Amino acid sequence: MGEAREIRATFVGAAVVATYLLAVVASPQVNASQFAELFLVYVSGSFALWIVLGVGFMLVSLFRQMRRSGSEPFLAEWARGSIAARWERDRGLSLIWPPLLFATLLASFNSFKQMVLPIAGYGWDPLLAKADRLLFFGQDGWRVTHAVLGSPQATALIDNLYHGWFAPMAIGVIVCAWLPASTYRLRTQYLLSYIAVWIGIGSILAFLMPSAGPCFYSHLVGPSPEYEPLMRRLAEIQAANGAPLSALHNQAMLLAVHGSDALVMGGGISAMPSVHNGLAVLFALAGWKISRPLGAFFGAYAVVIWVGSVHLGWHYGLDGLVAAALTCGIWVGAGRLADRFERPLFLSEGKPAIA
Fold first, then answer.
1. Which of 207, 191, 218, 208 is nearest to 268 (CA)?
2. 352 in a structural domain
3. Peptide bond into 344 cis (omega under 30)
4. pLDDT surpasses 70 at 233
5. Could you tell me if residue 168 is inside a domain?
6. How many domains, in total, are found in the chain?
7. Which pLDDT score, from 0 to 100, does residue 29 have?
8. Which of 5, 92, 305, 355 has the fewest CB atoms in 10 Å of its CB?
9. Which distant-in-sequence residues (6+ apart) come within 8 Å of 25 by Cβ?
10. Structural domain boundaries enclosing 47
């Protein structure tokens, strides 16, 4: 039964991601050879992280076995037993699937966001800017955050926390490869949600609600007397700190490659809904399943990400709120799907034959 559920979950996830990949590569805007090069970069990075985390998990597992047995196990025998257990569990699918998922999904999303998404234009920005003022009681959202957290030190801290999001975004997926079979539901719920956030929120809905975000408003939408002061304010803070803000560096890079024929890692501009915020909420939902303190920690981090997305000019306030609500719905649906995979496909599955 355990083997069947793992195989079903992997098959469904792989089918969705493969369909997304094929759709992206088939689009005339994406150069297949450039995509292949980008994919290899993501694969190499993904499996490098997979190896590092795997060594850590194996050392912990070996240490625990030594403590239980009271003697040092024969390493080769222990390794054979571990491999046999993985094969018995799901033929090793749950071991290889997460790093492949990470590499395939990010390469496809990167290509879609940079090459395909600009076709939709950025027609939603004026509406989202107006919605932002309603949300913040007549003020632009950034004015509220800078009134409270506008010091150079606070902004630098927010900048570091906001762009440090890449670590849990990558590590959380790869960790799923090394967790025991008993964590099936949490792993499956997390991975399916992860897929849905990138494809559903970051690609499909982003294409249907195309927007550039406050930091790119004047460059891609039109004159922005509301947001040009924000960009000047961030430049002043950067000068006061005497150190570059990652936000300004990354925003300049994205503008430089916008419209380029060359596929660049991390390229692409999109604001609504916010994948950054959606995944931060996903971390909190998964953390809450593990323990309340961990859930509270990542919940607080998700709030920081939302504030930072407005404070640094990446997003309108509504971008993160919409993404958060959608991610919560995705989480519930993914959990139900994980439960469905545990049930037999056929009534006779898992039942003894009747003589």
1. 207
2. no
3. no
4. yes
5. yes
6. 1
7. 93
8. 355
9. 32, 35, 108, 111
10. 2-342
